[in-house]
Amino acid sequence: MSQWFMITLVGKDQVGIVAKITTTLYESNCNLGEASMLRLGGNFTIMLMVGYKGTAQSLHNLLKPVADSLQLHLHINGIKGQLHQHQAPNVRVRVYGADRVGIVAQVTTALAKGDLNILDLESDVGGDDAKPFYVMNIEGFATAGIEAVETALQELLSQQHDLEVILEPIETVVM
Amino acid sequence: MATLDLLTYPDTRLKTVSTSVMVFDEKLQAFIADLEETMRAGPGGVGIAAPQVGHFERIVIVDVSSKPKIKHHGFMILINPEITHWKDFEIGREGCMSVPDYTGNVIRAKTIHLIARDENGKEHEYDMAGYEARAVQHEVDHLEGLLFLDRLVSRRHDLFQRKVYKSKT
């Protein structure tokens, strides 16, 4: 019986990473689930759900040669699949400001205080080495309503004056 | 009245282009009543298009009146609808009874002008905005065999679209 594994691959970006990894998996009859693959800085990162009939060790043995040839770090965990249980976000938080330490920790601590469950967080560092700025987009589910998130963010912004934080509801039109 | 079976993706019949309604009779009205019942029974319940139940004629029902604090036209039967004007665009999140367990960001016009016939064949014109305009655009797409999956925008870069200015050196 097929089991789900989470494969993590990280390394210097180059052409053909996704093609070579997924072809190796396809040729071994693996079924791919949900994935996040993106370039962070100069690195290419893959988080990939894989349905596979063997063990974590045999999946590792299968992928190790191609990962080594692409100079990628490989990590494999057994997981529960839990597909078809998407939760639609009801809140979006956009944050930006001059880059400094602590932005993510401070904002997400406030969001946790406001009972926001983060479903998706992506961030970029823009600008240049001399004047970097930080941009973060968060989508989540406000379990206690958007007002609780707003209160928690207002408390944060009364102490941190260097951040622009925009909170908005996400209205999903389901037809 | 009866609740009709919904087609769900990946059923390829959802990609069918529907034909115009030519005859406005009791049979059409009976179908519309069933279509409305099917819409009301669904998770969203604000709109439905005939092809979603495997009936490939250009018939749409939209009713966003359950949504508080928005402008709307109430319950609308839109037959052979044509969007003649679009203005301003925005990203919004959509889901669809025919695409279970998935929602995504789609760009739609903020305001539209629409011409459609009612169940008796009488022509009406509408100016719509916001939530209602989004619902109508989503349903009219079904008549062309388009799903919101055909219009998804990038999850990562749809919010901050930064222009890159090249310095003149």
Structure, explained:
The complex is a heterodimer of chains A (175) and B (169). Chain A has 175 residues and is α+β, with helices and mostly antiparallel strands. Chain A has 4 helices and 9 strands. Chain A has helices at residues 17-27, 56-69, 103-113, 146-159; strands at 3-12, 31-40, 43-52, 72-79, 91-98, 116-127, 132-142, 164-169, 172-174. In chain A, the strands form 2 sheets. A 4-stranded antiparallel β-sheet of chain A has the order 2-3-1-4, covered by helices on one side. A 4-stranded antiparallel β-sheet of chain A has the order 6-7-5-8, covered by helices on one side. Chain A is globular and about 55 Å long. Chain B has 2 helices and 5 strands. Chain B has a 5-stranded antiparallel β-sheet with strand order 1-2-3-4-5. In chain B, a hairpin with a 2-residue loop joins β3 and β4. The radius of gyration of chain B is 17 Å and the shape is globular. The model of chain B is unreliable at 159-169 (pLDDT under 50). The A-B interface holds A 38, 84-86, 88-89, 92, 94, 120, 122, 126, 135, 137, 170-175 and B 43-44, 46-48, 92-97, 100-103, 131, 134-135, 138-139, 155-156, 159-160, 162. β9 (172-174) of chain A pairs parallel with β3 (76-96) of chain B, so a sheet runs across the interface.
